[in-house]
């Protein structure tokens, strides 16, 4: 077996590391902490100029023509270096669905801006009454006599709605339907009359939104796929979201923990890095960071052969991140629970930040319980945990 990094991966890695050195400094991280969204549009445009927003798209479409493995190396290096990539994560989930299922006109109108890093798209699935059950969707799209649509309803947790250009919106078009039938997807321009949003702050200070749609009129141009068959469109985005775990920060947590252990005096006069319990935790976190990366590589492999890896990475990455965030808070003691505004905080408040943000990563993109059910039912062939609706 050859454990050497292939030359094409090394090339991408070097380029991405050079990009991060040039563009990521303390202000990027601070902007993320202060705003809670981590979207840096100037940085997105820089990524877009290199074809790195949509790296697997052909160069002619504004991508970089990378294969799935090369794209994986790119997102791993950018993520580890602290380049805020979550905003283009939601954008690409929707953009790939538009690219696969949208009309030619819609693609021409939207996709060049996506690839250039100037267009942000948010995901409008969750509703206040539905929670994880997105197929309980009540947001209603009804057809007007002129073929346009009128949308009424409310969406919960629409992250980036306050700054995105479009929302990839799940609606119910057949009022008689239930569950996953009778749904239709739209790409709704967020500057349309009748749309309002309110900020919701999470325990990690992340900014997400409640969005109200009150008689919002959109042309049929913005519909994606067939009327009442939105599931086929939505599934493209859901499957893609379940393959990887970009929000999991175990590798970044490990880097912070190692720095802390090398700098912090231990109880017996030496440094924390000499403490057996601290070393055990560092080793455990290193193993889980590696496993998370390998699961990402496994997803790239499945993509390459046209198969579905299931949501293993999306479950394992966040769960291990949450586990080790707790372990390092415990190791650091009182200084570990102070945030970045305190001069006494361990490692600039990084442990406190990881501890709060890790919880959210086990919720968005599907909670761990939902992902476990998908693995049990769809990968292991176990009986359904709830009746089909
Ligand atoms: C910070 C943040 C950002 C988000 N961003 C977006 C976004 O941009 N767009 C979007 O559409 N959504 C978004 N979401 C929604 C997210 O993806 C979840 O689907 C949603 O939060 C789940 O609903 P709930 O929080 O009301 O929990 P509930 O669904 O009410 O779940 C409560 C608990 O019950 C468990 N549970 C629920 N159903 C089952 C089941 N069938 N089997 C076993 N256990 C179950 C859950 O795992 C959880 O532990 C975001 C959520 C958060 C917290």
Structure description:
The protein is an alpha+beta fold. It has helices at residues 7-23, 26-35, 41-49, 68-80, 86-101, 104-116, 230-243, 250-263, 276-304, 312-332, 350-361, 368-379; strands spanning 121-124, 140-143, 149-155, 166-172, 183-189, 195-201, 207-218, 223-224. It has a four-stranded mixed sheet with strand order 1-4-5-8. It has a four-stranded antiparallel sheet with strand order 2-3-7-6, with no helix packed on it. Helix 8 runs antiparallel to helix 9. The mean pLDDT is 92. The structure holds flavin-adenine dinucleotide. Residues 90, 122-126, 131-132, 157-159, 202, 206, 208, 360, 363-367, 369-370, 373, 385-386 line the site of flavin-adenine dinucleotide. Flavin-adenine dinucleotide (FAD) binds next to strand 1 and helix 12.
Sequence of secondary-structure elements: HHHHHHEEEEEEEEHHHHHH
- How many H/I helical runs? 12
Describe the main β-sheet briefly: 4 strands, mixed
- In helices, the fraction of residues equals 40-55%
User: So what's the overall shape?
Assistant: globular
In short:
The protein has twelve helices and eight strands. It has helices at about 5-25, 25-35, 40-50, 70-80, 85-100, 105-115, 230-245, 250-265, 275-305, 310-330, 350-360, 370-380; strands at about 120-125, 140-145, 150-155, 165-170, 185-190, 195-200, 205-220, 225. The longest helix has 29 residues, at about 275-305.
Present the secondary structure layout.
Blueprint: H1 7-23, H2 26-35, H3 41-49, H4 68-80, H5 86-101, H6 104-116, E1 121-124, E2 140-143, E3 149-155, E4 166-172, E5 183-189, E6 195-201, E7 207-218, E8 223-224, H7 230-243, H8 250-263, H9 276-304, H10 312-332, H11 350-361, H12 368-379
Parallel strand pairs: 1-4
Antiparallel strand pairs: 2-3, 3-7, 4-5, 5-8, 6-7
Bound molecules: flavin-adenine dinucleotide (FAD).
């Amino acid at each position: 077996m050859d454990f050497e990094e292939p030359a094409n991966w090394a090339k991408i890695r070097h380029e991405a590391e050079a990009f991060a050195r040039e563009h990521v400094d303390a202000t990027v991280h601070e902007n993320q902490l202060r705003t809670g969204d981590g979207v840096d549009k100037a940085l997105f445009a820089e990524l877009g100029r290199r074809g790195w927003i949509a790296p697997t798209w052909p160069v002619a479409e504004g991508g970089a023509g990378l294969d799935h493995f090369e794209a994986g190396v790119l997102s791993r290096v950018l993520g580890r270096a602290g380049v805020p990539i979550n905003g283009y994560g939601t954008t690409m989930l929707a953009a790939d669905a538009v690219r696969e299922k949208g009309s030619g006109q819609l693609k021409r109108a939207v996709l060049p801006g996506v690839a250039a890093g100037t267009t942000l798209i948010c995901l409008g699935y969750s509703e206040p009454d539905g929670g994880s059950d997105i197929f309980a969707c009540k947001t209603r799209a009804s057809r007007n006599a002129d073929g346009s649509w009128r949308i009424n309803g409310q969406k919960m947790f629409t992250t980036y709605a306050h700054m995105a250009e479009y929302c990839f919106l799940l609606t119910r078009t057949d009022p008689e339907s239930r569950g996953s039938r009778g749904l239709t997807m739209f790409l709704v321009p967020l500057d349309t009359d009748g749309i309002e949003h309110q900020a919701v702050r999470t325990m990690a200070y992340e900014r997400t939104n409640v969005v109200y749609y009150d008689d919002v009129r959109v042309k049929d141009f913005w519909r994606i796929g067939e009327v009442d068959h939105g599931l086929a469109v939505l599934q493209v985005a859901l499957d893609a979201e379940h393959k990887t775990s970009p929000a999991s920060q175990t590798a970044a947590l490990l880097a912070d923990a190692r720095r802390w252990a090398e700098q912090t005096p231990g109880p017996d006069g030496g440094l924390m890095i000499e403490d057996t319990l601290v070393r055990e935790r560092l080793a455990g976190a290193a193993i889980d960071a590696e496993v998370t990366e390998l699961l990402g590589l496994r997803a790239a492999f499945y993509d390459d052969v046209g198969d579905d890896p299931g949501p293993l990475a999306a479950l394992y990455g966040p769960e291990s991140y949450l586990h080790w965030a707790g372990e390092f808070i415990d190791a650091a003691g009182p200084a570990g629970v102070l945030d970045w505004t305190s001069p006494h905080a361990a490692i600039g408040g990084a442990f406190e930040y990881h501890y709060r943000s890790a919880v959210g990563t086990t919720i968005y993109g599907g909670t761990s319980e939902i992902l476990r059910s998908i693995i049990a039912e769809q990968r292991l062939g176990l009986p359904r945990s709830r009746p089909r609706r």
